[in-house]
Amino acid sequence: MTTTPILITGGTGTLGSHAVPLLRAAGRTVRVLSRRDREDADGVEYVTGDLMTGEGIDAALSGVDTVLHLAGGPKGDDEATRTLVRAARAADVRHLVYISVIGADRVPLAWLRTKLDSERAIADSGIPWTTLRAAQFHDLTLTMIEKMTKLPVLPVPGGLRLQPVDATEVAARLVELTLGEPAGLVPDMAGPEVHDIAELARPYLELRGARGRLRLPVRIPGKAGKAYRAGANLTLEGAERGKRTWGEFLAGRV
C-alpha cells in the first residue's frame, strides 16, 4: 500500500463512488474531501472542507501529491476549482487530474463555461495536470429520460444527439490517468453509440412495459441550439470509447 494519499474531491458522488474502490484496489491510500463530517470506512479517510469558501482545504491537502478533482455542480465549479488550485499550488501537489465535459469549449452554455474556466485555471496553475472530457453518463441520461417520459408528450429537440457513457468506465479511465504521469488534455471519452431522444426513450419505455409517447418536435433556440444541432457535444472521431451500451445499462437498472 502506497502511504502518500490521493485526495479526491467529489469522492461520494456517482463517479467518485466507482473511483475510490478502484484506487484502493490499486494499493493507494485514499482521502476523500466531504462537506459533511463522515467516519473513516473501508480504509478511506474522510476530511471535511468546502471548496467554495476554502475552509479545510489546506488541511485536506497536507501530505498529498496527487489530486483527483471530481466535485461539480450546476454552478460555481470555476470558483471551486480556483480555490483548489491555489491550495494545491501552496501544498506542492505534483499531479492534478480533472474531469470535464465534451463540448465545454464548443457549446455556449453557462454551466459548460464554468467547466472550461476550470480547465483553464488548472492548465495555467503551474501544477502538472491531466484533464479528461467525458460525455453525459448513463445515470444522468436515465434521470432525464425518466422525467421526459412522464410528460403527456415526448419532447424531441431537433438535431439533438447524445453519446452517453458508463460512469464505471469513465472512473476506470480516470484512475488509470491518476496513477500515470501528467498528460495534459487527453482524448475525450464517449459512449459506443450516438442516439437522439426518441431512440433513448424507446428501450426505456419497452422495459417499463409502458406505451409509447406522442412526439413533440421542439427547437433549441439560440447559439446553444445551433451548437447542439452541429454535434458540438459529440466526439465522433479520436475519442476513447466505452463498451457498455445504453441498452445494456438500462437492462441492469430498469
From TrEMBL:
InterPro entries: Ergot_Alk_Oxidoreductase (IPR051604), NAD(P)-bd_dom (IPR016040), NAD(P)-bd_dom_sf (IPR036291). It holds the Pfam family NAD_binding_10. Residues 10-141 form the NAD(P)-binding domain. This is NAD(P)H-binding protein.
